[in-house]
Amino acid sequence: MLKKTTIDKLPDLAAHLMEQGTLLAPVQEAAGFNFQVIADAKQVDLNFHNTVLSPKAAFFPQMEDFVRYQTGKSILEAVPVELNLKPTFLFGVRPCDVKSFTIMDIHFSGTGLVDPYWQKRRQAATIFGYAFDLDQPAQAEEFYKTLGIGAADPDGSDVFMIRKGGDLLLKGVTLKGEKLLTQLSLLTAASADEEKYFEDYIIRGRDFKTRFTFLADKNIAKKLEDIFHDSDFWMKVSGACLSCGVCTFVCPNCYCFDICDETLFSQGIRRRVWDACMFTDFTLEASGHNPRTQVFQKLRQKIKHKYSYHVRKYGVISCVGCGRCTKHCPVNIDIFSIVEEAMKA
Amino acid sequence: MSSNNPYIPMPVEISNITNEVDTNDIKTFRLTFLNKEDEKKFKYLPGQFAELSIYGKGEAPIGIASSPTEKGYVEFTVQRAGTIVPGLVTAALHNMETGGKIGLRGPLGHPWPIEFLEKKNIVIVGGGFAFTTLRSLINYMLHPDNRSRFGRITVIYGARTPGLLLYKDELAAWGKREDIKTIITVDKGDETWTGREGFVPAVCKEVAPSPYNKVAVICGPPIMIKFTLPVFFDLGFYKENILTSLEMRMKCGIGKCGRCNVGYKYVCSDGPVFSLAELEELPRDF
Amino acid sequence: MSFEPKILGIACNWCTYTGADLAGTTRLQYPQNLRVVRVMCSSRINPSFIFRAFQLGADGVLVGGCHPGDCHYNTGNLYARRRLAVTKKILEFSGIEPERFRVEWISASEGNRYAEVVTEFTEQVKQLGPQTKFKISR
Amino acid sequence: MASSFKQIEDKLKTEAKKLLKTGQVSVVLAYGKGYDDNHPMPYIAKLPSDADNIVFNEYCTHNLARYLVRYPKGTKIAVAVKAADSRAVIQLIQEEKVKREDLILLGLPAYGMKNSKTGEIIDSQTTCGLYNPVLYDTLLGEEVHGQPVVSPYDVLAQYEAMDKDARFEFWKKEFDKCIRCYACRKACPMCYCDPCFIDQNNPRWGEKSPQSHGNLMYHLTRFHHLAGRCIDCGECSRACPVDIPLYLFHKKVAKECEEMFGQASGMRIDDKPVLVNFRVDDSDKILE
Amino acid sequence: MSRIGVFVCHCGLNIAKTVRVSELAQFASTLPDVVVAKDYKFMCSTPGQEMIAHDIKQHRLDRIIVTACSPLMHEQTFRKVLAASGLNQYLLTIVNIREQVSWVTHDIEEGTAKAKALLNGAVYRSRLLAPLTSRVIDVNDDVMVVGGGIAGIQASLELANTGKKVYLVEKNSTIGGHMAQFDKTFPTLDCSACILTPKMDAVLQHKNITLMTYCEVSEVKGFIGNFDVTIRQKARYVDHSKCNGCLACTEKCPGKGLSEWDEGLVNRKAIHIPFPQAVPQKPVIDRDACTFFKKGKCRLCEKVCEHKAIDFDQQDTFTTVKVGAVIVATGYDLMDTKPLIQYGYGKYPGVYNALEIERLFNSTGPTGGKVTLRDGREPKAIAILHCIGSRDKNHYEHCSRVCCMYSLKFAHLFKEKTSADVYQFYIDMRAAGKGYEEFYNRIIEEDVKFIRGKGARVSKSAEEPDRLIVEAEDTITGKFVQLPVDMVVLSPAMIPRSDTESIKRLFNLSTDKYGFFMERHPKLAPLSTMSEGIFIAGVCQSPKDIPDTVAQANGAAAEALTIVEKDKLELEATTAMVNPASCCGCQNCVRVCPYGAPAFNETKRVSEINEALCKGCGLCASVCPSAAIIARHFTNDQVLAEMEGLMEF
Ligand SMILES: Cc1cc2nc3c(=O)[nH]c(=O)nc-3n(C[C@H](O)[C@H](O)[C@H](O)COP(=O)(O)OP(=O)(O)OC[C@H]3O[C@@H](n4cnc5c(N)ncnc54)[C@H](O)[C@@H]3O)c2cc1C
Ligand SMILES: Cc1cc2nc3c(=O)[nH]c(=O)nc-3n(C[C@H](O)[C@H](O)[C@H](O)COP(=O)(O)OP(=O)(O)OC[C@H]3O[C@@H](n4cnc5c(N)ncnc54)[C@H](O)[C@@H]3O)c2cc1C
Ligand code: SF4
Ligand code: SF4
Ligand code: SF4
Ligand code: SF4
Ligand code: SF4
Ligand code: SF4
């Protein structure tokens, strides 16, 4: 059943959620919006287009502690860090970012060994998806539409939210979401008109215009494979790339990590931290051999990983078209223009 | 969480250390489990590897050198890595003594395809210290319970100098057996060396095993692999019947951390064992 | 108990370290808060060493070298002077009290000066109180 | 009268084409089309026909000197340089990373550059504040005159005046934001080390995890590495996805270096970088 | 993972009084990797050392920490213990709890706490120590001496007499240096030529000395024990292998140039030997003065030379020799006093500098030893002005040390050769030297007038146009003096050679603020330099007189001998090295190293350190941004670990 509340009451809604667990929601920061653990219900702000950093950190934090140990003491005294999670509410996630969770699920908990941290954090969370505003044009660098993700796609959310003027319409998508909504007494039932508006909105969202509209994903994988050895092509498109890690760190679908032992005064923590295929030491072996040293190799890895390898391995592109990589690239490299060019090559 | 957590190592104790070579930088570590359940869970086959873990230093993926037929312990043959700046984990390991306790995560990766090898004649080609998982395979096949499952076994093993050959005692023992043919070669012998001299690819060509019902299992330094593969290909071995094992920098060992891919394959979880046919599908450049 | 600061010293082998020994041989008394790392030349000091010292919880850092012109390696301390000056400015702008970081030229014959400097610096750091800004808290 | 961006672009195209055609250079580092006009990209022209793709507009902020070190010694390169970019080239020449005789500097006088991310005019206080290149072989437009000249260090006053605890809190807040993507060092024309000290694990200079102390170690050390070398182009701050005002710190260090050693970075080819140099009569006062 | 042994010394009560030593050992034994920890009364005693040796064996220790007195005291002692026990000596760490703990506090709590912290730091560091071995190199037997003044001559002879082969490189066409210009030498007043020329001859005759006059060093490569020195033989235009020194050529030659030897007071021929006793006695052609070179015609010398020794086509040639050590003895110049316009040198013919006066006294000089003014008059009053440019904050702060003495010598000679009144204008008299004060007293008795006050100005006398007025403030009477004289002698500062910069660069020497070569240590190593295997002697190090110069020359010869006497040399083990995998090619190390040890390898695009040149200061390691330099024994990880250990408790 569709529920509703008003934007004015957002702090109350937030406060309710905070009573039940941890609330993560967009907050205005100096550099733009970002998800934060909400301490003050009034901070929650839905007047954003999308967040600077993707919400992947909610499930795959940049730093995850595995074990605490003491050097000089036996391994038997090392203590695994247990995750004691409260229920978590991830509030106001755009459909493309929601989609990224389902893609990452395949990697972290859907195939091979299960990553317990990802899985536990996922299980503890309820996701409030939040449709884009269809009357606002997409930002130039976004292209999720191309990848079959609607601007108001509720898939993957537990609760999906659409804004209608000063109102916020909420619908339970999963049983978990539905149950939660019924508990939230401050929500009222929506009218039939609103229900219709909601359904139409979702359909309308599928046709929402973004920059690229012509590609079918399967071809991308094949085509990239074909031109793998065309280093001239890769050199050309990577000419400006700095091989920094911005595009990977802001990407909701980049999952590479490193495991580090960080010790101080013989107290240490083994933890995982984000890593990036753009970094020098990513593939550097102890012998000094490094299979990927040149910028073009690194950028090729990144692009092929997302649009080709990932498709071969998991059957889905590892990109949701959020456009963060392009937007934040210091030299304005547009990953999708490269894919587009590859298709022409 | 920890019991099912693939990132948390099991505690093991170093019960024996063997210095393998005269340069002192390759040692075999025999590890015994400190928890009996861990030992039970640690079911592996030749060709798999594990992450050796030392808190404060890190982890290093190392191929399992012992055979699952050897009960009560697992063995790893480790080279001290890094020429100028020593490798963190391997150097620390080399500084350890028996009784030292470390961590172990695994078994990881795919083994040599044992079922596929059954009933076949097997040529094992090893070079340098990359002989470790081959040793595991040989000992596995030679075990009385298993020997009958496999056809003829030929081992061709080469090292730069006699001092750099691993598992010298075992090599000698195999040499005396009837059910395995062992050919040892060194690039350059010394005064005491009475065996064969010459590079592995050349020896392979000379021995020229017929491809009939045969599988070649090859492990060694990249340069050796590069020249040995064509030899077998020319001898008429099917690409599917030439097997090798790859190495790439890795961290998690379970296909999550994203760094050891060659094309769409992860060396840790899809490999490290690949057939030549599979490799040819992958890009030659990374 | 009054605040007893931990002070990290880095002293060059030829002048300041020897000067410190001289302070000992002449039985001069000074506070025991300073713990000295011996390096061959004050120019060996990497700026990161200083940052790290504060992260490790040093309440003050004292660097000692030969007087300019007397460097055992001719010009080492002339480079060090510039590099450490920049280090100090960086510390200052990052918000650490610049008084917590001091560079002194103390020759091998200046045992008394060594004792004086240590005494005075320890006193100064005491006044400043514990350094918590950079200190890594776990 | 300053030249328009379009005029400069045309000259840049012509000049690049000429240089490539005559074989005077094998590479022209300039700007090319991005996915829209507001997002041009560094562009590497190698064929005379490539020159047609060159653009120059108010969003062409990138410091192309960054790419020079990628080419093998002896490669003849023409590089389009704005004010700070030319200083970067000078600094690189001082550091013997590039040779003057291998370079042709196409000077771009530019006023009113805009930030691609925000679309706003870049406050010249956040950069070196110069409009005309310091060094060039050909100037592809009229020198900019009559625009307000700002001291590059004016912007610091407010921060210098801060109480030290407040300043510490200010920086702590800023550095805590850092996600360690290293865009700052990669965008920096003077950060050409590969590997960077922070990439190394034996010893590990700063923890890899993006926590206060690792971040602090990375940034403070980087500021030190760039002391007397940072040419104040502002690229690091513009590259930073979380908008850390790194330029402030760099400016402060640059100001101090200039005061202590009497030399600004990237102004004269024959200078020696200040921290690998000394004067016997440097004053001990600088340590106070 | 290391097996560390900690040995805490009581040093009788020296340490034990203010550090609880057994508690310290107990504390050590709780630290990770510490296998044994013991305390003992006197660790440095034989039983103490034996205990360490024994424990190394018994506990298979691989790191030793001795917690005792300063490393400057006993590091060597304990290193030997390690070496004798088969452990690399660099695996020793000394914790200084005597000089820097127990002796500087009375408080046993404080002392013990600090000792613990220091020990903990040592344990942290110790784990990361690596064994080091020093490289051994072969040593070349021969020595090069640069500069053929009295210093160079003396050093060459000394070395040659021990049987070593010496290359003596002199830039002029003769050896002898300044001393050859003098008439008499203070304080003994013996004839300079009489004592010098035999030595010059001995050099020429000595079978172990290769004399290379009219030569300059153009390149120095290598390092101690193994220098490759390239020498440029300047074209003489006379083939010395043919010339027999008859000097017929010099008579006919029409070309004229100012005689350097006579300080430009007279001319000499274009083809010339500098002075009659020159060694070698073979002429060279001064290209700038030669009529043929100037006008394309002449060649008179060629015609008269019976031995066909003249060769106008001669070019500079280069030879490279290998030597094990080098002595630099390039001497000094006198300061050019022309810019000091207040003294009128170069303006008034009556103003002379000291070396010109030396030539005037000399019987081989321009006047044949007669003291006359330029216009031939005999001076009636002479003023000698001390400290011109020396001891002067505006010019050279240093004292030139010999001026007082030679001014006295001049006074004496003036008195001897003329009837003039002689006045000394001095700041104060410095006569510290054997027999110097006596010489001073003797001169006072010779009726020389002393005016204590620095000569301030020399001007032309208004009344008598060919006389000069010297102005000064007499600091004894406080009166302003204006003294009319005929001749003024300036005693200019002795300053480094004008080509000091290039010599400095060639041999990688450093200079003090005036430009004199710097010794390694002013007291303990006054003849060595920071460049190993390179020594200095004579005035190039600092102003001094002949006795001191000769003493230094002998000393330098002995120092050089200690090197070339050896077959092999052990090099410093704690040197720096570049990890090429991390080097970004910034060349900072190359720019800063005081010894030129790092060099950039253009092909590999990384820097490399020549360990033979490296002294292990570690400067390069701290300027290396990408932390590529491993400063052995003081590596980044070792220092960082030690700091961590020091700060833990
Ligand atoms: C499948 C596989 C099997 C291997 N089997 C053996 C073996 O049997 N014996 C043996 O001596 N060595 C083996 N290696 C190589 C061994 O993993 C490296 O030498 C080791 O990781 C170096 O670690 P370090 O901490 O000493 O070096 P560091 O330089 O400190 O390495 C830092 C980290 O980089 C990673 N890394 C560095 N080099 C490699 C590398 N070559 N391969 C994978 N990861 C690397 C590791 O995560 C390591 O912890 C194997 C590698 C792989 C991938
Ligand atoms: C006016 C005057 C009077 C003095 N009278 C006395 C006295 O009476 N008694 C006394 O004890 N002292 C006297 N001294 C001091 C005395 O001159 C010095 O102590 C002595 O000459 C120093 O000898 P030297 O070999 O160090 O230098 P020098 O005599 O200067 O000899 C240096 C030699 O090195 C050569 N040379 C220089 N550069 C190079 C080069 N690059 N390559 C090769 N060769 C080079 C020069 O040509 C010269 O031959 C007097 C000094 C002066 C100025
Ligand atoms: S594409 Fe852009 S953001 Fe990504 S590594 Fe290259 S320069 Fe950095
Ligand atoms: S690759 Fe770029 S567009 Fe795609 S999900 Fe990642 S950040 Fe978004
Ligand atoms: S921060 Fe320092 S080491 Fe890193 S790239 Fe910049 S200059 Fe080099
Ligand atoms: S660009 Fe910004 S976020 Fe990235 S490392 Fe630099 S300061 Fe940190
Ligand atoms: S300072 Fe370091 S990075 Fe620079 S050239 Fe020397 S070794 Fe290489
Ligand atoms: S340690 Fe000192 S002497 Fe050695 S190379 Fe480095 S700077 Fe030169």
Query: Segments of chain C where pLDDT lies below 50 for 5+ residues?
Result: none
What pair of chains forms the biggest interface?
A: A-B, 55 and 44 residues
Percent strand of chain D equals 5-15%
Number of domains of chain C: 1
Helix content of chain D: 25-40%
Q: Cα distance, first to last residue of chain C?
A: 24 Å
What is the overall silhouette of chain C? globular
Q: Termini distance of chain D?
A: 47 Å
Listed once per kind, the bound small molecules are: flavin-adenine dinucleotide, iron/sulfur cluster
CATH superfamily of chain C: Lumazine/riboflavin synthase
- What is the residue-mean pLDDT of chain C, rounded to a whole number? 92
Number of helices of chain D: 8
Main CATH class of chain C: Alpha Beta
Q: Order of strands in the sheet with the most strands of chain C?
A: 2-1-3-4
Largest sheet of chain C: 4 strands, parallel
Beta fraction of the residues of chain C?
Answer: 15-25%
> Quick one: overall form of chain D?
globular
Fold-level CATH name of chain C: Rossmann fold
SSE sequence of chain D, one letter per element: HEEEHEEHHHHHH
The helix count of chain C comes to: 4
How would you sum up the major sheet of chain D? 5 strands, mixed
Describe the protein's architecture and organization.
Chain A is α+β, with helices and mostly antiparallel strands and 345 residues long. Chain A is built from eleven helices and twelve strands. Chain A has helices at 10-20, 95-110, 116-124, 175-183, 192-206, 217-226, 231-238, 246-250, 295-314, 324-328, 335-344, and strands at 2-6, 22-29, 32-37, 63-70, 79-80, 88-93, 125-130, 159-164, 167-172, 188-189, 257-264, 267-274. Chain A is globular, with a radius of gyration of 21 Å. By secondary structure, chain B is α/β, with parallel strands linked by helices. Chain B has two domains: 10-107, Elongation Factor Tu (Ef-tu), domain 3, CATH 2.40.30; 114-245, Rossmann fold (3-Layer(aba) Sandwich). Chain B has helices at 36-41, 88-94, 114-117, 132-142, 168-176, 200-207, 222-235, 267-270, 276-281, and strands spanning 10-19, 26-33, 49-54, 58-63, 74-79, 101-108, 121-127, 153-159, 181-186, 196-197, 214-219, 242-245, 261-262, 265-266, 273-275. In chain B, helix 6 packs parallel to helix 7 (222-235). The mean pLDDT of chain B is 88. Chain E is an alpha/beta fold and 649 residues long. In chain E, strands 10-7-6-18-29 form a five-stranded parallel sheet, covered by helices on one side. Chain E has a five-stranded parallel sheet with strand order 20-27-21-22-23. Chains A and B meet through strand 4, strand 11, strand 12 and helix 9 of A and strand 4 and strand 6 of B. The structure holds flavin-adenine dinucleotide (2 copies) and iron/sulfur cluster (SF4) (6 copies).
Briefly, what is this?
The complex is a heteropentamer of chains A (345), B (286), C (138), D (288) and E (649). Chain A is α+β, with helices and mostly antiparallel strands and 345 residues long.
